[in-house]
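Recap from last week: sequence in, structure out.
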Amino acid sequence: MAHMQFDAAIDDLVKLDGPLQKGPVPRWQRKAKENSDARPIATTPRRRAMLRSLGKTPKTPTTSQPTGLSTGGGRTPGRMSPGNNNRKILGKKPESNAAASQLVGDRFIPNRALMDLDMGNHLLAGGEDGEELDENNKVASVSQQKYQQAMKDRLGDGKEAKILTFKQRAPKAQEGHFNNLKVLYSASKTDPGKGACHRYIPTVADRILDAPYLLDDFYLTLLDWGPSNFAAVALNDEIYLWNAQDGSIDCLLELDDEDTYISCVSWIQQGCILAIGSSDGTVQLWDVEQKKNLRTMTGHASRVGALAWNEYVLSSGSRTGKIHHHDVRIQNHHTTTLDNHTQEVCGLKWSPDGKYLASGGNDNVLNIWEYGANVPLFNLTQHQAAVKALAWCPWQANVLASGGGTADRTMYFWNASTGNSLNHVDTGSQVSCILWSEAHKELISGHGYAQFQLTIWKYPTLAKLCNLRGHSSRVLSMCLSPDKTTVMSCAGDETIRLWKCFMNEKKTTKTVKKSSKSMSSTLSNMHIR
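Predicted structure tokens:
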């Protein structure tokens, strides 16, 4: 019999669905016990019907009442919780709002009706001017005034402070200083990306000119567009002039020696004087209007591959690496010799203000010379190939752009005042020439293998806007029209192409239809052998 009682006790202990004999009392049992200890609300038939409509079950009324409470009017009082004399019952408002919270069962419910947000905001602001505060709020008002005064001392009184004030212009930078954040100053006037997103750029050449016998030599400058709207093109040993107004073509010069060829051409900045360099080391000055040779200047021992004008001073760079300055007003024209390149000088450009001269050579060196100096101001060796492409920024006279050859493929931007590199971009191909557009704040570069394209860049972000394709060989030279709207490029495919890539936005829409019909003419009609 004893073993049967032991087995029954074991079964009771391991039974999972049975009630727990030991351990904490479950919450539902504790709540039921608390509700049974509290006084239930006495109900009438009408009250029980109302409670049923609210989803509540009425409790059985009792006859006991708490001490000190009167029902009044024969009604049975509701269940009262300790410390809760103002409980709202069935929509009745409490008699007073002294208590800030309620304790219902084991939950704490704050009384949000007693939280006066307007009064708190009023006290935080310190009250209106001239308003009298009571004694209880005076201390808070004094501390708030001290806090506000401390904040004014740190942030300014609003009149003299310049925090977030954009009415005044930014201070003007000193001469020679390049500010990369300058674009932020003009952000309120124009959208920096507006021109890049919405400006139409024709990608088809507006006109094509055939240029037979054009030398495919990277180091030569065989094309230039003068201020009188004449473009000079060197075809081996001859110079042809193309009139941009009427499209007529005329032969200006033909060399007597068949072994000598023309290596570079350059127009004077104002006027109709054309400088012509040849492979025998001579430099000729021609008056285009009169078709007359004004003078022939000698001094170089090898071909002249680069020419640059600075008013009446003509600079010429030769294959020996030397640069000569010629004062064309005097008889003894050779005034200065610059000797710092070890190989051929293939790029020469004077800054717009005439203060600096940039020279690039086949020795991968870029030199910046100050006017009148015999020693370079800066000797820059960042390029890894020949430096032929040189161009000065027209609106920042001390900013220079340079491009490297096949082994470099990089465009650098320099501050000529300090010699520092401002920025650089890898173009992916040989850079042969660079031009700036002041109207659009852009620049265009000519390239070699493998796409033979012209690329337009936004400055100073250097975002690539578009590529102009059409040449089937590397681009050798580029020049800009006098009105700064049309780019002329020549390539080793013996063609010259005109691109209207910098047209005014108002005029562009009228010329879009015309650009699709490319006009073709030839220089061979005037070519005499």
